[in-house]
Amino acid sequence: MKSVLITFDQAYYEKIIRLLDHLDCRGFTHMERVQGRGSKTGEPHYGTHAWPAMCSAIITVVDDEKVSPLLEKLHEMDMRTEQLGLRAFVWNIEQSI
To answer: Per-residue pLDDT for the chain (97 aa), expressed as one digit of tens each?
Structure first.
């Protein structure tokens, strides 16, 4: 199993939920308001007067075979609207209860 952390502009929320449903990635945790800035491009998401945009994050644990399709669809989404900002990171899950 793998853990996938998806960080994204709030505008992506509904699309990401639909994608998780489509790929049968049922369980997730949504963090509505997170702040950050990309390492290469894009504007900061600080929720301030100067940088009003905000990010969200979703973490999900999925079977290994679901990781590639999920990352491919997220990448396609990001390429369509790069300035919004969307990133995904994958970790191995050693144990769960």
So the answer is: 999 999 998 899 999 999 999 999 999 999 998 887 776 767 777 777 777 778 899 999 999 999 999 999 999 999 998 878 899 999 999 998 8
Instruction: Answer for the pair 73, 33: CB distance below 8 angstroms, yes or no.
Output: no
Amino acid letter, residue 23: L
Which amino acid is located at 79 in the chain?
Answer: M
Q: What are phi and psi of 62, to 5 degrees?
A: -135, 160
User: What are the two backbone dihedrals, phi and then psi, of residue 51, each rounded to the nearest 5 degrees?
Assistant: -130, 80
The Cα–Cα gap between 73 and 63 comes to 16
Give the Cα separation of 62 and 2 in Å (integer): 5
Ordered domains of the chain (ranges, CATH): 2-58+65-87 (3.30.70.120)
Model confidence pTM above 0.85:
yes
